[in-house]
What we know:
By secondary structure, the protein is an alpha/beta fold. It has helices at 32-37, 62-73, 91-105, 122-135, 167-170, 199-209, 243-252, and strands at residues 19-22, 45-50, 78-83, 109-113, 140-144, 159-166, 187-192, 213-216. Helix 3 runs parallel beside helix 4 (122-135). The two termini are 15 Å apart.
Amino acid sequence: MPYLTSTRAGTASTGVRTGLGVPGYAHPLLAPAEWARLTRPGTPLDWVVLNVADGPGSQPDPHCLEAAGRLRNAGIRVLGHLDADRGARSFGDLVSEAHRYLDWYQVDGFLLDRCPTDSGALPEVRRTTTTLRAIRDDAHIVFGHGTHPHPGYADSADQLVTFSGTWSDYRWSQVAEWTADHPPERFCHFVHGLPLPHLDEALRIARWQGAATIFFTDRTGTPDGPADHGGRVEPFETMPGYWDEIVSRIGTGVSE
C-alpha cells in the first residue's frame, strides 16, 4: 500500500501520542450530547473548534459560551473557526472575527479553515497569523488546508491539516516528502466515511504518515461545498458512531 512506502516508515513504532482534534461540532443546541461527552475524563483531546455561525456570530451566544467554558475549565484547548475561503476572505474580516472570538469566548487559538495552499498566498497568510499571535498570546494556530500545501506554510502554524477527505481516498494516500522534516505533532488528518472495521487500519496510516492529531468518522457529507443554498453537508458536525472505540484505541495504541 502507498502509505507503507512513505518517507515516514517506522513512525508507528515510535510511541508517538495520537490525539483527537474536533473540527467543529454543530451548535450546542443541536448536538448537546456531543459537546457534553467531550469533557469526559481521559478523552485524548488536542483541541476542539468552536464554530458558532460560520464564524463567531454577530453577538455572544449563551449556549456556546457555556460549552466553551466547560471545555476550558476541563483544560481542553478551544479554537475559533475562521474561514479563509482559499484566500478569498480579507485580512480585515478574519482579524475582526478573531477579536470577537477572543472577546466573547476567550479562545486559545484558531483554525484557519480552507487555508490556501500555494506559495503566492503565503505572505498574506503570514500577515494574518502574525496578527493573530499578537492579539492572543500563545495562540495555537491550525491551518486547515485539507491537502499538502507548499512547505513554507509549516513556518507559520502550529499544525497543518494535510488530509481532509473520504476513507476511499485516505487509504491510498501518500505523504509529501517534506513533512519528514517535522515531527508528527505538526500534522492533522480528518477522514469521513470511515467504516468501523477499517478504524485500526486508518489509525495505522495516520501513524505511518506522521500525523499525531486525527478525527475519524463514519459520517458522510460534502464538507467543502458552499455554506449557503444548502450546498454543504458537514460530516464532522456530529460525533462518530464509534466514538468510544476511537477513544479506547488511541488510549491503548494500535498494534502492528
